[in-house]
Amino acid sequence: MVEAAEVYVYFNFRSPYCYLASKNMFRIFEQYHARMVWRPLGGWGGRSAPERAKKKMPIVRQDVRRHARRLGIPFNPPPITTDPTPAGAGSLLAESEGLLRPYIVEVMRKEWGEGKDIGDLEVLLEVGEEIGLPRGALSKAIESEANLQRLEDNWAEAQERGAFGVPTFIIGQDIFWGNDRIDFVCDHLRELGLRRL
């Protein structure tokens, strides 16, 4: 039996590049013997500092719009004040319930496809209802101090390992930064002989 590679995924729901990655990163785990090690971040973890982000925003929006057009997906940015921390904390419950993929896809669709504020608890609870997460459990997970601490710990771990942005994929010592590096992740796994037949 082939031993699956661990692919660490550092992800911030507020990043438009994570939105783009959410549309095709799952093929890594469908096409290769690989196991996702989910590392969500909150707040500004993995993102440019607020002053720099403000300067970059017009160019980033142009860039993401081009990518979205090529992928055939909508791009409607959320309010600038959107806080990704609740979504990151909620993703930990989704992961434990085996619903991480639909959670990621639906949260990103609401945020970047429909322009919703995912810092709003009701938006996340609506996603939970759509994918089968109980409102009470999701609300508790979002407010959990332990989950909020995990988001901070994930960013500290990411930086220790050499990551400086999101999305970042790490396999052993190899770091792949950006939504457009998913093909390189797949190439690396293929070179390791982990392609599924």
Could you please describe the fold and organization of this structure?
- This protein is of the alpha+beta class.
- It has one domain: Glutaredoxin, CATH 3.40.30.10.
- 54% of the residues lie in helices and 12% in strands.
- The protein is built from nine helices and four strands.
- It has helices at residues 16-22, 27-31, 50-71, 85-96, 100-113, 121-131, 135-143, 145-160, 182-191, and strands spanning 5-12, 34-41, 168-171, 174-177.
- Strands 2-1-3-4 form a four-stranded mixed sheet, with helices on both faces.
- Helix 1 crosses helix 5 (100-113) and helix 4 crosses helix 8.
- The two termini are 13 Å apart.
- The mean pLDDT is 95.
What does this entry show, briefly?
This protein is α+β, with helices and mostly antiparallel strands. It is built from nine helices and four strands, in the order E-H-H-E-H-H-H-H-H-H-E-E-H. Helix 4 (85-96) packs antiparallel against helix 5, helix 5 (100-113) crosses helix 6 (121-131) and helix 6 crosses helix 7.
CATH topology: Glutaredoxin
Assembly type: single chain
Q: Give the name of the CATH superfamily.
A: Glutaredoxin
In round numbers, the mean pLDDT is 95
The dominant shape is globular
> How far is it from the N-terminal to the C-terminal residue, by CA?
13 Å
Radius of gyration: 16 Å
Helix content: 40-55%
Strand content: 5-15%
What is the number of independent domains? 1
Q: Which CATH architecture is right?
A: 3-Layer(aba) Sandwich
Structural category: alpha+beta
User: Total number of β-strand segments?
Assistant: 4
Instruction: For the largest sheet, list the strands in their spatial order.
Output: 2-1-3-4
The CATH class name reads Alpha Beta
Order of helices and strands: EHHEHHHHHHEEH
Low-pLDDT residue intervals, each spanning 5 or more residues: none
How many DSSP helices? Answer: 9
